[in-house]
Amino acid sequence: xxxxxxxxxxxxxxxxxxxxxxxxxxxxxxxxxxxxxxxxxxxxxxxxxxxxxxxxxxxxxxxxxxxxxxxxxxxxxxxxxxxxxxxxxxxxxxxxxxxxxxxxxxxxxxxxxxxxxxxxxxxxxxxxxxxxxxxxxxxxxxxxxxxxxxxxxxxxxxxxxxxxxxxxxxxxxxxxxxxxxxxxxxxxxxxxxxxxxxxxxxxxxxxxxxxxxxxxxxxxxxxxxxxxxxxxxxxxxxxxxxxxxxxxxxxxxxxxxxxxxxxxxxxxxxxxxxxxxxxxxxxxxxxxxxxx
Length: 292
Hints:
Elements (H helix, E strand, L loop, with lengths): L1 E4 L4 H11 L3 E8 L5 E5 L7 E5 L6 H17 L4 E6 L18 H11 L2 E7 L13 E5 L2 H10 L6 E5 L3 H14 L3 E4 L1 E3 L6 E3 L10 E9 L3 H12 L4 E9 L3 H10 L3 E4 L7 E3 L2 H10 L1
Parallel strand pairs: 1-2, 1-4, 4-5, 5-6, 6-7, 8-9, 8-12, 12-13, 13-14, 14-15
Antiparallel strand pairs: 2-3, 10-11
């Protein structure tokens, strides 16, 4: 088995390979003057099983094109089986057509991966695992929510109230997974998004957080606007501390600064690197690869 590290995923690739007792190979890459990517495999893959670790985190378009080029090279050069580890899979959030004429990016990306020979996909808290059903692509989606909760438990936050945002069954699953580590109860603060304007409205359910430490757990944060409204709402309900823990942080520098200022603490995993990436997912990935 060969572990290949795609552009931007070198550190995670080396960490994962080390946990498996394997050497990691790098994908050589550079950018042409016109902005296009040049990629080259540095080890022979003919007849070999290959695990490609390549996150499509920002810059998403460039990382996605690089991924497709690498997969094309692996197929053309005779790799026996290709397992893709995409800790953050871009374009997975548009999983259905909400407005007439919209492109459903998740299904398009899935078709591309299948056509380029990916037999198995390992992701971390992908937006909607159900969209992969019937695609011919074996999905192993890992949840890093327990890892985030374990981080807080190690920091002395056992007994905190675990909260999730949204209204899907998976949101309750996130809260329960965190509560299984921390104790202290859990709940979901419902959110409702207008498909045209994108405006999010929070539900008014009484969560019983008065005098409690609250940790909001979520799979992804983008602008942070919804999360910060939730923080304000929890403070109005007299929570004594409000922390935020996300698997994937897509915050820009301004958004990250605001979130850190407005919460009592913010942490995320290293699926997307930032100064708040204090929780490593390589152990989860290595375990998933071993399961085969």
